[in-house]
Every structure is written in structure tokens, then in C-alpha cells.
Amino acid sequence: MRIHVTGNCGSGKTTLAKQLQELTGLPLFQMDSLVWQPNWQPTPADIRDKTEKEWAGEAQWIIEGVSRHARKNADLIVFLDFPWPLCLYRALKRTWELRHSNRAELTSCSERNAFWPLLKTLWLYQKTTRKRILSELQDKSHVRFRMPSQLARWQNTVLSSGKPVVLGCEGQAGNSSQRRKS
Predict the structure, then answer these.
(1) What is the chain's Cα-based Rg?
(2) Which of 29, 49, 132, 144 has the greatest number of beta carbons closer than 10 A?
(3) Which helix (H) or strand (E) holds 15?
(4) Which of 11-15, 69-73, 116-120, 161-165 is the least confident region?
(5) How far, in Å, CA of 154 to CA of 150, rounded?
(6) At 33, phi and psi to the nearest 5?
(7) Assigned CATH for 2-168
(8) Domain map of the chain by residue range?
(9) Edge-to-edge strand order for the sheet containing 2-7?
(10) Which residue has better confidence, 124 or 17?
(11) What is the pTM of this model?
């Protein structure tokens, strides 16, 4: 199975991806560790693209972050489409709480220096990336959550049952999440 967990900064992608990894045992690839080099310098596009393709070409995985190759190859996309103000609040809160340390997946990037790259990423995501993700979901099996409470209900079903992730989204539709298959 190939699962792609995507959404804006501060939406909870990393937390959810780690929970799904524990449930499924699938290898986890985190886009932040690829996208950012030391001191929040972006990885050159050709290196990022090559590595993304390699990860997405594997037989099984969870890829957490924003990746067009993961969206293209995923069996299931989990889209955390939370309101921009909520993501902004969560991302800034995380940056403040970790201001004297680093995130586990970004050991060479001090949170103290994350403020401007974070704001830029949050803004660009809302203006361009979100629209692209929404258009690419149309023909893919996916669940889309607009509020954390919707995600929590899905997590309770999937994570507590120990069933495969796709089975966990059966029967949920409408406002809580949406699932479409091509």
C-alpha cells in the first residue's frame, strides 16, 4: 500500500503519518527532511525531484508532506485541508515551543530561524498548492478532512480497529470526509 499524507504546515501531517506507520508498518518518508537543507535552505529542485521519484516508485510507503509524485502514485491520499488560520496558529505555536531546539526530522534546521520560511510556505500553499492538490484528487482514492474533529473520528475508527487504512474510510462520506475512487 502507498499512503500519501498531505496538507499545509501545521495541519498535523507528521503526527498522523507516524500513527499510520505504527499501524501499518510501512516505511515512512518525510518531505521536510528532503525539502530543507541546513539552516532552512531549500534543496535544489533536481535533487528533490529525483529523490521524490525514487520514494514514490517504491512498492510500499507512507510519504508525508507535499509531493506531486506521491499524489500521482498513492493508493490513498489523506488530505488535511484545515483552515489557514488554524494551520498558521499551530505552525507558529510549534515554532515558538521549539525555539531553542530542532524538530526530530529537521535536526539541522533551528526552529528559531523558521519564522520567515514558514510564513512563506504557509502563504504559497494557500495561494497555489492547495488548489493543485484539490484538482489532482478528483480521480484518486482519498479522504479529505476540513476540521480536526473530522480527522479525530476517522483516526478513532482506523487506528483503534487495526484494520487496513482504506477499509477504515469505508462508510464515511459527506461532511466528515470524502472518499473517491477512479
Answers:
(1) 16
(2) 29
(3) helix 13-24
(4) 161-165
(5) 6
(6) -70, -20
(7) 3.40.50.300
(8) 2-168
(9) 28-30, 61-64, 2-7, 76-80, 142-145
(10) 17
(11) 0.80
